[in-house]
Amino acid sequence: MRLTSDAGRLCLQEGIELVDVATASEGRFTADPQAIYPRWAEFRSWAAARTPAGPPVAPPAQAGAPAPRPGQSIGIGVNYADHAAEAAIDLPAAPVVFPKFSSCIAAPSAALILSGDRVDWEVELVVVIGATARNVAEVHAWEYVAGLTIGQDISDRGLQFAGSPPQQFGIGKSLPGFGPIGPWLVTPDELADPDDLEIICMLNGEIVQHSHTKHLIFGVSALIAYLSRHLTLNPGDVLFTGTPAGVGFGREPAVYLRPGDELVSRIEGMGELVTRVVTGAGHGR
């Protein structure tokens, strides 16, 4: 199943067409994409009786985030060995968890307003939770996943690493627009192997990040099992799973985003997320 939204209305791909869920269900489900997750099992059952999705189609021009208002937005740091190496950090013994506050979630085509001169990119696989998860066994973790989407964990490195030790890690990754996700929510059954997906980020047409999610130190199942031992994951929560090597601050010299830049983020089977960079007041080139 493949879902997107068009001007804030939840849409389901049937064949090569997009149908408005509220209209097709005769009001059984609302148009609000976030409202579908607490009723995910019921929605899946309804959708299963309809025409399955065909080949991927272009998303709507006004596609929104597939989970626009998650109750919790959680980030995982240092989750690819090559990224740990470029950051000169030891491999973690357990997932490195930080808040990526939900107010940063943005539509896949939203313009990125720079907050300063050290704003960086991080392409990531994003998981949307479809059922309440508490003390979940790793072997059953995928059962709690509604779907997967593309995300950018945009990071203001100046703010993130401010202080000694760094004191604003979560805030530096949670400024307005710093969490674009979408344009599609893809259920795991649509993918040949949801644990091994090609992931790419391009900056102005040049590939800057390229890996596969099989290289995650802690994969989706391990992350859900770990997190659900310590907190409750609720339907509609989002999980940014970490980024591979190739971020700007890991380069020599460091490279940061500038007005006019274009980021294209791709994950196998999910299309692409395009982020165009603009400047905020006082933050020109």
From TrEMBL:
Domain Fumarylacetoacetase-like C-terminal, by residue range, is: 74-278
What is the official name of this protein in its record? 2-keto-4-pentenoate hydratase/2-oxohepta-3-ene-1,7-dioic acid hydratase in catechol pathway
Query: Which Pfam families would you find in this protein's record?
Result: FAA_hydrolase
Which keywords, in A-to-Z order, does the entry hold? Metal-binding
Which GO terms fall under molecular function for this chain's record? Answer: isomerase activity; metal ion binding
Tell me which PANTHER family the record gives. FUMARYLACETOACETATE HYDROLASE DOMAIN-CONTAINING PROTEIN 2A, FUMARYLACETOACETATE HYDROLASE DOMAIN-CONTAINING PROTEIN 2A-RELATED
Task: Specify the taxonomic lineage.
Answer: Bacteria, Bacillati, Actinomycetota, Actinomycetes, Actinopolysporales
What's this protein's family per the entry?
Answer: Belongs to the FAH family.
GO biological process assignments: carboxylic acid metabolic process
